[in-house]
Structures are given as structure tokens and as C-alpha cells.
Amino acid sequence: AHQSGHAQHARRIVTIGSPQHGTSVAAAAGTLLGGACSGACAQLQPGSALLDSLNSGDETPTGPEWVSIWTNADQTVVPPDSARLAGADNIPLQSICPNDTAAHSQEPRDPAVIGLVVSALGVGKLPHPRMGSCQLYTALALADGPPASPSS
Question: What is this structure's pTM?
């Protein structure tokens, strides 16, 4: 968003398990496969030209509120906190639901992740989830919409 100047057109930006700073899985593939690790494989290596360009300057430009959600059980985005963005509301899933073992591919279907996204995209004040609110966010995945502010 900051590269194209479109950040001011969004109210909130929510990412789920995004390898903002790359993944060592791609780096290992690059080492093992050399030139056969091209396209996304090469782009997702930490320090790639693409990631360096995307992460240059302000990672979370003024305008929208930024939320990054990830799981500590991720074995695709390694380390999992590669999803962390300077200036964002950074939410490791296990900081809300300590027993949730969702892996990278399970994040989009995980009820707590869905609830966190629903809450973050709601029209109320941006919630700041806290430990022990797992049931609340899981319930949001099944509800018609977010409450005014689930963190109140």
C-alpha cells in the first residue's frame, strides 16, 4: 500500500500469516535449489529485492490502521513473527488463544482468526485483543457481525 500511495484509501488493513520479512523456508529452498527457486520462492527469501523494497521506509503508512495476525505454529512462514509490522497492531494467535495450534494453511479457517478479522474490520474502535478473550473471538466467527468493541 505504501509503495503505490493508496494507503490513504483504506480504513484498515489486516494481514493473516503474511511473510512480511520473508521466510527461512524460501531461503532454504534457494540454497538447495539454486536457480530453480524462482518467482515467489525467490521473492520470499529474507532480504530479497522485493521484500527490501516493500519494507523500505514506513511499513505502516499514515491513513489506515494496520493489523497483522499470525500463528506461532506456522511452519511455512518461519520465523512466524516475520508477519510483524512496525507500527501495526501485531497479534500472535496464541496471545489470545494459547491452546490454538492452527498452522499456516489453517489460519483462514480458524474460528479465532476469523473472529479477529471480523472484529478488526468492524466499524467501531479498533479492538486490542487480550489473553483470555479467545471464546469471544471464536464466537464472532459464527455471529452476524462484530460487537461495538469486544476488547472493552
Answer: 0.82
